[in-house]
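Lecture 7, part 2: worked example. A protein chain together with S-adenosylmethionine.
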Amino acid sequence: MSFSHNPVMINRVIEGLNIISNGTYVDCTFGRGGHSRNILEKIGEKGKLIAIDKDKAAEDYAKEYFSKYKRFYFEKSNFSDIEYILEKYNDSKKVNGILLDLGVSSPQLDEADRGFSFMKEGPIDMRMDTTNKMTAMLWLQEAEIDEISRVLKKYGEEKYSYRIAKSIKKSIEDKSLKTTLDLSNIINNCYPKNKLYKKNPSTKSFQAIRIFINKELQELEKILKDCLELIEKEGRLVVISFHSLEDRIVKNFINKHSDGKNIISKLPITNISSNLRLKKVKIPLKASDDEINQNVRARSARIRVAEKL
Ligand SMILES: C[S@@+](CC[C@H](N)C(=O)[O-])C[C@H]1O[C@@H](n2cnc3c(N)ncnc32)[C@H](O)[C@@H]1O
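Predicted complex, written out as structure tokens:
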């Protein structure tokens, strides 16, 4: 098993978490442990890192490469189950920091068999948790045109959603839709010809189907709410998102529970109104040009940090 996930914005994540040596941290999106590895280097003997991922491949990776760490615990689960997971691994329910590095990992995208990529031929699967029954193909077979169109519009902001949905259903009927490349061709053929597109036209629809199949936005909304209860006073929430739907949810959540003003990382907090739960931590939103040059995934990444009051 190869290690191929470059942890995105690692320095900002570590700064954002403001790690204390004996603190307890949760990496809700372990992937291949790029962020976890760095957090483990920062916490001391009495610190603890609990990692979560719903992908069996991430669990296998954690077993193989992280079992040597004494202060590390892994749970294969949805991160929205964080409350139960903390009951299992932590004496107190509260933790000092929670990290979410949302979306798919590089290995998930790179392995054609997982069906996430429109550039590699594979089954139309797209499940992060392969023990779930509902693959993307099964859903496309079962759903009506209107439902598919609604998902493409809602989660992909796809303006040709109805045309694409109709074409997908037609190709299911005539049995010409079998692989991710078939799906990508069907989508691309619904776009006007003779035009140059900045991104492959399949990007939005693949994103939409993936978000829907993995209930990504519902999971995110649930865990953000849980974080309000689970993070200790002065503990940190750090979220990296990769598209505007996610980032909007995170931004609105932090704004709703803070007064919208920034604090400078590491300075003590004063004069806080009593019904506020969070304080925004000032940190550059986007990756540096250097990082983007080295890691193309960082290009669309946005990081937001909040401190619990
Ligand atoms: C962008 S990758 C994280 C990469 C990781 N930070 C690293 O450095 O290797 C996102 C990971 O989160 C997992 N994931 C996404 N949503 C999840 C959820 N709701 N519950 C648990 N794991 C989730 C995916 O399976 C994927 O492995």
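The chain has two domains: 10-107+216-308, 130-213. Residues 152 and 270 are 45 Å apart (CA to CA). Keep this in mind for problem set question 3.
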